[in-house]
Design brief:
Layout lengths: L8 E4 L4 E12 L2 E11 L2 E7 L7 E2 L4 E3 L3 E5 L16 H15 L1 H17 L4 E6 L5 H7 L2 E8 L18 E7 L7 H13 L4 E5 L3 H9 L3 H8 L14 H7 L7 E5 L5 H10 L2 E4 L1 H8 L5 H6 L5 E2 L12 H11 L5 H8 L1 H6 L16 E5 L6 H9 L4
The chain binds zinc ion.
Protein backbone atom coordinates (compact mmCIF):
# COMPACT_ATOMS: atom_id res chain seq x y z
CA UNK A 1 0.00 0.00 0.00
CA UNK A 2 1.31 3.47 -0.80
CA UNK A 3 0.81 6.57 1.27
CA UNK A 4 -1.71 9.17 0.20
CA UNK A 5 -2.33 12.44 2.02
CA UNK A 6 -4.68 10.70 4.39
CA UNK A 7 -3.77 7.04 4.58
CA UNK A 8 -0.98 5.68 6.72
CA UNK A 9 1.33 2.94 5.54
CA UNK A 10 1.46 0.11 8.07
CA UNK A 11 5.03 -1.13 8.49
CA UNK A 12 6.04 -4.36 10.17
CA UNK A 13 9.39 -6.04 10.58
CA UNK A 14 9.12 -9.72 11.41
CA UNK A 15 12.60 -11.05 10.69
CA UNK A 16 16.08 -9.78 9.97
CA UNK A 17 17.47 -6.31 10.67
CA UNK A 18 15.98 -3.19 9.05
CA UNK A 19 16.43 0.55 9.38
CA UNK A 20 13.39 2.80 8.73
CA UNK A 21 14.02 6.53 8.24
CA UNK A 22 11.52 9.43 8.16
CA UNK A 23 11.37 13.21 8.59
CA UNK A 24 9.90 12.75 12.05
CA UNK A 25 9.72 9.93 14.55
CA UNK A 26 7.30 10.04 17.46
CA UNK A 27 8.61 7.62 20.05
CA UNK A 28 5.90 8.75 22.48
CA UNK A 29 3.89 11.99 22.80
CA UNK A 30 6.75 13.66 24.67
CA UNK A 31 9.76 12.21 22.82
CA UNK A 32 10.00 13.28 19.20
CA UNK A 33 12.97 13.12 16.87
CA UNK A 34 13.25 15.27 13.76
CA UNK A 35 15.04 13.37 10.98
CA UNK A 36 15.70 9.97 12.52
CA UNK A 37 15.42 6.26 12.03
CA UNK A 38 14.18 3.15 13.79
CA UNK A 39 16.36 0.10 14.04
CA UNK A 40 14.35 -3.13 14.03
CA UNK A 41 15.37 -6.76 14.32
CA UNK A 42 13.33 -9.97 14.28
CA UNK A 43 10.04 -8.27 15.05
CA UNK A 44 11.23 -5.87 17.76
CA UNK A 45 12.46 -2.29 18.01
CA UNK A 46 16.16 -2.20 18.86
CA UNK A 47 16.48 1.56 19.09
CA UNK A 48 15.56 4.95 17.64
CA UNK A 49 18.40 7.19 16.44
CA UNK A 50 18.92 10.71 15.14
CA UNK A 51 20.04 11.49 11.60
CA UNK A 52 20.12 9.48 8.37
CA UNK A 53 21.84 6.09 8.60
CA UNK A 54 24.97 5.59 6.52
CA UNK A 55 24.02 1.97 5.85
CA UNK A 56 21.26 0.60 3.65
CA UNK A 57 17.86 1.72 4.90
CA UNK A 58 14.23 2.21 3.92
CA UNK A 59 13.49 5.90 3.50
CA UNK A 60 9.77 6.48 4.04
CA UNK A 61 9.91 10.21 3.28
CA UNK A 62 9.44 13.56 5.02
CA UNK A 63 6.38 12.52 7.05
CA UNK A 64 6.16 10.82 10.42
CA UNK A 65 6.74 7.33 11.76
CA UNK A 66 4.42 6.87 14.74
CA UNK A 67 2.95 4.11 16.93
CA UNK A 68 -0.14 2.31 15.58
CA UNK A 69 -3.54 3.45 16.82
CA UNK A 70 -5.45 1.59 19.51
CA UNK A 71 -9.24 1.41 19.37
CA UNK A 72 -9.84 0.31 22.96
CA UNK A 73 -13.60 -0.19 22.64
CA UNK A 74 -15.58 -1.34 19.64
CA UNK A 75 -18.13 -3.99 18.70
CA UNK A 76 -17.12 -5.49 15.35
CA UNK A 77 -20.14 -7.79 15.37
CA UNK A 78 -22.47 -4.80 14.90
CA UNK A 79 -20.72 -3.58 11.73
CA UNK A 80 -23.59 -4.78 9.50
CA UNK A 81 -25.80 -2.18 11.21
CA UNK A 82 -23.85 0.75 9.78
CA UNK A 83 -26.10 3.70 8.84
CA UNK A 84 -29.25 1.72 9.60
CA UNK A 85 -30.40 2.98 13.00
CA UNK A 86 -32.01 6.31 13.93
CA UNK A 87 -30.24 8.44 16.55
CA UNK A 88 -32.87 11.08 17.18
CA UNK A 89 -35.49 8.98 18.95
CA UNK A 90 -33.67 8.32 22.20
CA UNK A 91 -31.33 5.64 23.50
CA UNK A 92 -33.98 3.07 24.40
CA UNK A 93 -35.52 3.24 20.91
CA UNK A 94 -32.04 2.81 19.44
CA UNK A 95 -31.31 -0.29 21.55
CA UNK A 96 -34.68 -1.81 20.63
CA UNK A 97 -34.10 -1.26 16.91
CA UNK A 98 -30.55 -2.57 17.18
CA UNK A 99 -31.71 -5.87 18.69
CA UNK A 100 -34.47 -6.26 16.06
CA UNK A 101 -32.18 -5.51 13.13
CA UNK A 102 -29.34 -7.67 14.42
CA UNK A 103 -31.74 -10.59 14.69
CA UNK A 104 -33.16 -9.96 11.22
CA UNK A 105 -29.74 -9.75 9.54
CA UNK A 106 -28.61 -13.21 10.64
CA UNK A 107 -25.18 -14.45 11.67
CA UNK A 108 -23.76 -14.84 8.17
CA UNK A 109 -24.23 -11.17 7.32
CA UNK A 110 -22.92 -10.08 10.74
CA UNK A 111 -19.76 -12.17 10.24
CA UNK A 112 -19.23 -10.91 6.68
CA UNK A 113 -19.48 -7.22 7.61
CA UNK A 114 -17.36 -7.70 10.76
CA UNK A 115 -14.64 -9.20 8.54
CA UNK A 116 -14.73 -6.20 6.20
CA UNK A 117 -14.59 -3.78 9.14
CA UNK A 118 -11.59 -5.64 10.60
CA UNK A 119 -9.70 -5.23 7.30
CA UNK A 120 -10.60 -1.52 7.22
CA UNK A 121 -9.12 -1.17 10.70
CA UNK A 122 -5.88 -2.79 9.55
CA UNK A 123 -5.66 -0.55 6.48
CA UNK A 124 -6.32 2.63 8.44
CA UNK A 125 -3.56 1.95 10.97
CA UNK A 126 -5.84 0.95 13.85
CA UNK A 127 -3.81 -2.19 14.49
CA UNK A 128 -4.81 -2.88 18.12
CA UNK A 129 -8.38 -3.33 19.36
CA UNK A 130 -10.45 -4.06 22.43
CA UNK A 131 -13.42 -5.81 20.81
CA UNK A 132 -16.65 -6.59 22.65
CA UNK A 133 -18.78 -9.51 21.46
CA UNK A 134 -21.93 -10.94 23.01
CA UNK A 135 -22.41 -13.42 20.17
CA UNK A 136 -18.86 -14.77 20.30
CA UNK A 137 -18.39 -14.45 16.52
CA UNK A 138 -15.48 -12.02 16.22
CA UNK A 139 -12.51 -13.81 17.84
CA UNK A 140 -11.50 -15.75 14.74
CA UNK A 141 -12.21 -12.74 12.48
CA UNK A 142 -9.76 -10.66 14.51
CA UNK A 143 -7.11 -13.37 14.50
CA UNK A 144 -7.39 -13.88 10.75
CA UNK A 145 -7.37 -10.16 9.95
CA UNK A 146 -3.97 -9.63 11.57
CA UNK A 147 -5.35 -7.24 14.19
CA UNK A 148 -3.98 -7.60 17.70
CA UNK A 149 -5.46 -6.88 21.11
CA UNK A 150 -8.13 -8.26 23.39
CA UNK A 151 -11.41 -9.97 22.46
CA UNK A 152 -13.90 -9.56 25.30
CA UNK A 153 -16.79 -12.00 25.49
CA UNK A 154 -19.57 -9.87 26.97
CA UNK A 155 -22.25 -11.08 29.36
CA UNK A 156 -25.45 -9.51 30.58
CA UNK A 157 -28.48 -10.62 32.57
CA UNK A 158 -28.13 -12.76 35.65
CA UNK A 159 -27.33 -16.32 34.57
CA UNK A 160 -24.07 -17.23 36.27
CA UNK A 161 -24.14 -20.79 34.92
CA UNK A 162 -23.59 -19.47 31.41
CA UNK A 163 -19.97 -18.25 31.72
CA UNK A 164 -17.83 -20.01 29.12
CA UNK A 165 -14.19 -20.97 29.69
CA UNK A 166 -11.74 -18.59 28.02
CA UNK A 167 -10.82 -19.46 24.46
CA UNK A 168 -7.20 -20.11 23.69
CA UNK A 169 -6.17 -18.01 20.72
CA UNK A 170 -4.28 -19.45 17.76
CA UNK A 171 -2.15 -16.37 17.74
CA UNK A 172 -0.28 -15.02 20.76
CA UNK A 173 -1.02 -11.46 19.64
CA UNK A 174 -4.71 -11.81 20.48
CA UNK A 175 -5.90 -12.48 24.04
CA UNK A 176 -9.37 -13.44 25.15
CA UNK A 177 -11.09 -12.05 28.22
CA UNK A 178 -14.57 -11.23 29.48
CA UNK A 179 -16.73 -8.15 29.93
CA UNK A 180 -19.88 -7.32 31.88
CA UNK A 181 -22.32 -5.26 29.81
CA UNK A 182 -23.27 -2.57 32.35
CA UNK A 183 -24.28 -2.21 36.02
CA UNK A 184 -27.98 -1.80 35.19
CA UNK A 185 -28.18 -4.74 32.75
CA UNK A 186 -26.06 -7.33 34.52
CA UNK A 187 -26.67 -8.71 38.00
CA UNK A 188 -24.24 -7.84 40.77
CA UNK A 189 -23.53 -11.52 41.31
CA UNK A 190 -22.65 -12.09 37.66
CA UNK A 191 -20.50 -8.93 37.49
CA UNK A 192 -18.52 -9.97 40.57
CA UNK A 193 -17.96 -13.44 39.13
CA UNK A 194 -16.81 -12.11 35.74
CA UNK A 195 -14.42 -9.69 37.38
CA UNK A 196 -13.05 -12.42 39.62
CA UNK A 197 -12.41 -14.75 36.68
CA UNK A 198 -10.69 -12.18 34.49
CA UNK A 199 -8.69 -10.86 37.46
CA UNK A 200 -7.56 -14.36 38.37
CA UNK A 201 -6.24 -14.76 34.81
CA UNK A 202 -4.53 -11.33 35.03
CA UNK A 203 -6.62 -10.08 32.10
CA UNK A 204 -8.50 -6.81 31.62
CA UNK A 205 -12.22 -6.62 32.38
CA UNK A 206 -14.41 -4.18 30.46
CA UNK A 207 -17.74 -2.62 31.46
CA UNK A 208 -19.94 0.17 30.04
CA UNK A 209 -20.69 2.51 32.92
CA UNK A 210 -22.47 5.84 33.46
CA UNK A 211 -23.61 6.01 29.84
CA UNK A 212 -27.36 6.70 29.95
CA UNK A 213 -29.81 8.67 32.09
CA UNK A 214 -31.93 5.51 32.46
CA UNK A 215 -28.97 3.75 34.06
CA UNK A 216 -28.24 6.60 36.47
CA UNK A 217 -31.89 6.98 37.50
CA UNK A 218 -32.32 3.26 38.10
CA UNK A 219 -29.17 2.94 40.20
CA UNK A 220 -29.80 6.10 42.20
CA UNK A 221 -33.58 6.03 42.67
CA UNK A 222 -34.42 2.33 42.09
CA UNK A 223 -37.19 3.37 39.74
CA UNK A 224 -37.85 4.61 36.23
CA UNK A 225 -38.29 2.98 32.85
CA UNK A 226 -35.36 0.67 33.31
CA UNK A 227 -36.71 -0.69 36.63
CA UNK A 228 -40.07 -1.33 34.90
CA UNK A 229 -38.31 -2.98 31.97
CA UNK A 230 -36.38 -5.43 34.20
CA UNK A 231 -39.51 -6.23 36.20
CA UNK A 232 -41.50 -6.84 33.00
CA UNK A 233 -38.80 -9.29 31.87
CA UNK A 234 -39.16 -11.19 35.17
CA UNK A 235 -35.68 -10.12 36.36
CA UNK A 236 -35.57 -9.85 40.15
CA UNK A 237 -33.26 -6.97 41.00
CA UNK A 238 -34.35 -6.70 44.64
CA UNK A 239 -31.01 -8.02 45.94
CA UNK A 240 -28.90 -5.55 43.90
CA UNK A 241 -27.28 -3.09 46.34
CA UNK A 242 -28.48 -0.04 44.43
CA UNK A 243 -30.08 3.20 45.72
CA UNK A 244 -28.59 6.64 46.43
CA UNK A 245 -25.53 5.78 44.34
CA UNK A 246 -24.07 6.75 41.02
CA UNK A 247 -23.20 3.94 38.59
CA UNK A 248 -19.50 4.48 39.35
CA UNK A 249 -19.93 4.37 43.15
CA UNK A 250 -22.12 1.26 42.75
CA UNK A 251 -19.49 -0.73 40.83
CA UNK A 252 -16.82 0.58 43.19
CA UNK A 253 -18.79 -0.74 46.19
CA UNK A 254 -18.99 -4.05 44.36
CA UNK A 255 -15.19 -4.23 44.16
CA UNK A 256 -15.06 -4.01 40.37
CA UNK A 257 -12.64 -1.11 40.09
CA UNK A 258 -8.91 -1.79 39.94
CA UNK A 259 -6.10 -1.35 37.45
CA UNK A 260 -7.35 -4.23 35.27
CA UNK A 261 -10.85 -2.76 34.78
CA UNK A 262 -11.73 -0.58 31.77
CA UNK A 263 -14.66 1.72 32.56
CA UNK A 264 -16.20 2.75 29.23
CA UNK A 265 -18.19 5.96 28.51
CA UNK A 266 -18.57 7.87 31.85
CA UNK A 267 -20.97 10.40 30.41
CA UNK A 268 -22.77 10.75 33.74
CA UNK A 269 -19.75 10.89 36.02
CA UNK A 270 -19.45 13.61 38.67
CA UNK A 271 -16.31 14.92 40.40
CA UNK A 272 -16.47 12.27 43.09
CA UNK A 273 -16.88 9.50 40.51
CA UNK A 274 -13.79 10.68 38.67
CA UNK A 275 -11.85 10.79 41.96
CA UNK A 276 -12.96 7.21 42.72
CA UNK A 277 -11.78 6.11 39.28
CA UNK A 278 -8.45 7.91 39.59
CA UNK A 279 -7.81 6.45 43.07
CA UNK A 280 -8.70 2.93 41.97
CA UNK A 281 -6.28 3.18 39.00
CA UNK A 282 -9.07 1.80 36.80
CA UNK A 283 -8.62 2.53 33.11
CA UNK A 284 -11.08 4.83 31.37
CA UNK A 285 -12.17 4.67 27.74
CA UNK A 286 -14.30 7.36 26.12
CA UNK A 287 -16.27 7.17 22.84
CA UNK A 288 -17.31 10.80 22.21
CA UNK A 289 -18.71 10.47 18.67
CA UNK A 290 -20.99 7.61 19.69
CA UNK A 291 -22.04 9.51 22.84
CA UNK A 292 -23.03 12.58 20.85
CA UNK A 293 -25.07 10.50 18.41
CA UNK A 294 -26.90 8.47 21.04
CA UNK A 295 -27.13 10.81 24.01
CA UNK A 296 -26.56 14.31 22.62
CA UNK A 297 -23.72 15.02 25.03
CA UNK A 298 -20.01 14.47 25.55
CA UNK A 299 -17.84 13.11 28.37
CA UNK A 300 -15.85 15.69 30.37
CA UNK A 301 -12.41 14.66 29.15
CA UNK A 302 -10.71 17.82 30.45
CA UNK A 303 -11.93 17.11 33.97
CA UNK A 304 -10.86 13.46 33.73
CA UNK A 305 -7.35 14.60 32.88
CA UNK A 306 -7.36 17.16 35.73
CA UNK A 307 -8.18 14.32 38.12
CA UNK A 308 -5.18 12.30 36.89
CA UNK A 309 -7.05 9.92 34.57
CA UNK A 310 -5.50 9.06 31.19
CA UNK A 311 -8.47 8.28 28.95
CA UNK A 312 -8.17 5.82 26.08
CA UNK A 313 -10.28 6.14 22.94
CA UNK A 314 -12.93 3.85 21.51
CA UNK A 315 -15.51 4.29 18.80
CA UNK A 316 -18.22 1.89 19.99
CA UNK A 317 -19.83 0.19 16.99
CA UNK A 318 -20.78 1.22 13.46
CA UNK A 319 -24.37 1.15 14.74
CA UNK A 320 -23.67 4.37 16.66
CA UNK A 321 -20.62 5.86 14.97
CA UNK A 322 -19.66 6.66 11.37
CA UNK A 323 -16.31 4.87 11.46
CA UNK A 324 -14.11 2.68 13.65
CA UNK A 325 -11.08 4.79 12.83
CA UNK A 326 -9.31 6.44 15.78
CA UNK A 327 -7.88 9.07 13.41
CA UNK A 328 -11.49 10.22 12.99
CA UNK A 329 -12.13 10.09 16.75
CA UNK A 330 -9.01 12.20 17.42
CA UNK A 331 -10.08 14.72 14.77
CA UNK A 332 -13.52 14.98 16.36
CA UNK A 333 -12.01 15.49 19.82
CA UNK A 334 -9.68 18.13 18.47
CA UNK A 335 -12.70 20.05 17.13
CA UNK A 336 -14.92 19.61 20.16
CA UNK A 337 -12.45 20.02 23.03
CA UNK A 338 -10.51 23.21 22.43
CA UNK A 339 -8.77 22.91 25.81
CA UNK A 340 -6.96 19.68 24.97
CA UNK A 341 -3.55 19.95 23.40
CA UNK A 342 -2.78 17.82 20.33
CA UNK A 343 -0.11 15.72 22.09
CA UNK A 344 -2.65 14.74 24.78
CA UNK A 345 -5.17 13.69 22.13
CA UNK A 346 -2.44 11.70 20.37
CA UNK A 347 -1.63 9.96 23.69
CA UNK A 348 -5.30 9.00 24.04
CA UNK A 349 -5.25 7.24 20.67
CA UNK A 350 -1.96 5.41 21.28
CA UNK A 351 -0.29 4.83 24.66
CA UNK A 352 -3.44 5.34 26.79
CA UNK A 353 -5.28 2.72 24.70
CA UNK A 354 -2.38 0.29 25.00
CA UNK A 355 -2.30 0.80 28.78
CA UNK A 356 -6.09 0.30 29.02
CA UNK A 357 -5.82 -3.05 27.23
CA UNK A 358 -2.74 -4.06 29.23
CA UNK A 359 -0.60 -4.36 26.08
CA UNK A 360 1.77 -1.46 26.66
CA UNK A 361 4.74 -3.85 26.80
CA UNK A 362 4.13 -4.47 23.06
CA UNK A 363 2.85 -1.20 21.66
CA UNK A 364 1.61 2.33 22.40
CA UNK A 365 5.08 3.86 21.91
CA UNK A 366 8.08 3.11 19.70
CA UNK A 367 10.55 2.55 22.49
CA UNK A 368 13.18 -0.19 22.53
CA UNK A 369 11.79 -3.68 23.11
CA UNK A 370 8.32 -3.01 21.67
CA UNK A 371 7.00 -4.75 18.58
CA UNK A 372 8.37 -3.46 15.29
CA UNK A 373 4.94 -2.49 14.04
CA UNK A 374 4.28 1.15 13.24
CA UNK A 375 2.70 3.65 10.87
CA UNK A 376 4.18 6.05 8.36
CA UNK A 377 1.92 9.03 7.80
CA UNK A 378 2.80 11.50 5.03
CA UNK A 379 2.16 14.70 6.98
CA UNK A 380 4.43 17.68 6.47
CA UNK A 381 5.22 19.78 9.53
CA UNK A 382 7.52 22.67 10.41
CA UNK A 383 7.55 21.97 14.14
CA UNK A 384 6.36 19.45 16.72
CA UNK A 385 3.08 21.17 17.48
CA UNK A 386 2.18 21.35 13.79
CA UNK A 387 3.15 17.70 13.52
CA UNK A 388 0.61 16.59 16.14
CA UNK A 389 -1.96 18.94 14.67
CA UNK A 390 -1.38 17.37 11.23
CA UNK A 391 -1.83 13.86 12.63
CA UNK A 392 -4.93 14.45 14.67
CA UNK A 393 -6.67 16.44 11.97
CA UNK A 394 -6.33 13.44 9.65
CA UNK A 395 -10.11 12.87 9.47
CA UNK A 396 -11.25 10.96 6.41
ZN1 LIG B 1 -19.89 -0.39 23.68
Amino acid sequence: MTATDKNPVCVENSHGRELHRAGWIIIDPFTIIENGYIETSNGFIKGVHRGTPAEKHIDHGPGVIMPPLVNAHLHLELSALKNSLPFGKGFRAWVKKLLEKREALGLEKLVKEAGKAALDLMESGNLYVGDISTLGITGSIIEESGLNGICFHEYLGSDISDIQPFFTGKNDSVSFSIAGHAPHSTSAQLLRMLKKRSGFAGLPFSIHVAESDDESLFIHDKRGDWADFLTSRGIDWSSWQIGSKTPVSYINDMGLLDSLTIAVHLLNANDRDLEILARSKAKVCVCPRSNLNLHGKLPDIEKMIQKGIKPALGTDSLASCKSLNIFDEMAFISNQYQGLDPATIFAMGTINGAAALGIEQYTGTLSKGKRAKFLYLPVRAKNQNRLFQGIISNER
